[in-house]
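Reader question, answered in our methods column.
A reader sent in the components of a multi-part assembly and asked whether the whole thing could be modeled at once rather than chain by chain. We filled in our standard form and ran it. Here is what they sent:
COMPLEX SIZE: two components
ENTRIES:
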Amino acid sequence: MKPQAEVEQVWPRDGRIRVVGRLHGVPPDAGSRWRLQLTRRSRTDHVLRYDADLDGARFACGWDVGGLAAYDGFGAADQWDLHLTDGARTLRVGRKLDDIRGKKAVMVYPEQRVPGADFGVRPYFTVEDNLSLECRS
Amino acid sequence: MNHPRIRYLLLHAYGRGGTIRTVFNQANSLAAAGWDVEIVSAVRRRDDVQFPLDDRVPVTTVVDLREGVAAPRERGLAGRWRARRRDRLSEAPAREVPRGEFGHRYFDRRLELALGAYLRSLTDGVLVTTRPALNFLAAAHATHGVVRVAQEHMNHGTHRPDVQRRIVETYPRFDAVAVLTERDRVEYARLLPGTRVVRIPNAVHSLDQVPAHHDAKIVVAAGRLFPQKGFDLLIPAWAKLVEAYPDWQLRIYGSGEKKAQLRALIEEHHLYNHVLLMGHTDRLDDELAKSSVYVLSSRFEGLPMVMIEAMSHALPVVSFDCPTGPADVLTHGVDGLLVPEQDPDALADALGRLMGDRDLRAQMGTAALLTAAAYGPDAVHPRWEALFSDLTTPDGTRRGTGAPEGLHV
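And here is the structure of the entire assembly that came back:
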């Protein structure tokens, strides 16, 4: 099957966001090192990277939302898209393999305030069921 | 066709509530059996009806509230006076519908007067009114020869005191009062001595449903996001289950005014990965077939039709033993589990019992399917036909003689 970074749970809590899921269609390779990559949609040269833990096909990655504090000055809202990458492959993080359509309105997560900035960040599913972050003041 | 006309008066035949759906089902099967049926909508806010309705069943409206079709432009001095009077009455509060009627806000004086005039114009056939406000208006105004049947979907104790009093005062004027559960039949018969009180449950739209296979880790609830449905009790109950059953989902179908509060409750209990507010769906059948358990957390019910629909998909049910309905339908330990009302701990324990035991789900689900059969169209609709035939038999000789037909000795 087509490689897919399938989200199972998203935990925005206590100033951190943690994403847990499973890689599908990716042969297990003990040597590869996976990282979660946040790419700012309006300025794709703005990228934040965090180490992801791999246990077989299961991945998990948590990070402090404080890393976004430097990226204020946006208008009404600002979006960041999530990818998992091992250097060779870059997979959009999303949730495509279940039966729920229209996740944007159904799987809704609480906002985390960004310390030292006047905005909050909330994980959300796009209309294509991919996982992104939205910053809003 | 010698049948007299059967008219169903609904508050809003163009809405999508459970009463409307069941009345349409009744109308469709009566029409198919050769009866002359009409749906009368007190108000109209939409262009189209929201549920399937037989082409032979006309829908008429008493007051059309759609924008742009309001009222024809009135001409002349008298016309302008009439238009002004209509506007004034639309702003005047209802006088005849008691304040405690849960639908009181939908009534104003103009609607009351229009309904009164309509009801006084009926001189034949059968009129079936479908909620307390309409029952009260029919008791007062439908007095020119029409046979009257009041449908009462709620337990007497669930109504507010002013409505309770008016029920006792006015329902004896009806030729029959139709209630949904046995518990209600006994209670209304006691409150309305001498009045004919019959129990006719609502029918599910079909018994020909895809059965659930009980493997999916999905529990379904459905209903308007409104305090009556008790989703604010269900969410804390799920918080007690999430550690033992982390890969199960609770899917709540429906929309409504309490959505933001329920969302806040989900966030407070950190259940955003496990409890999903699914919104309204047009394909609840498909969603039920995909799940494994149905849960009913209501504070009160009339007869919970979606629960019975879930049972027709072979889903076992966990329900509060609230007034009325669940205990009328369910046998505890056979086709579901009944727990003390408004007790989230007990609800969680019962859900856990089923979530942890696939065999129990399958066994109770099969029993639920058998229970649901009593609420199929073929089981329910003959009861309406029998009631209407009996009420309209000219000399009334078949009523209460106790002698079986054809046994003249």
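What stands out: Residues 76-91 of chain B form the longest helix (16 residues). The mean pLDDT of chain B is 92.
Send us your own complexes using the same form.
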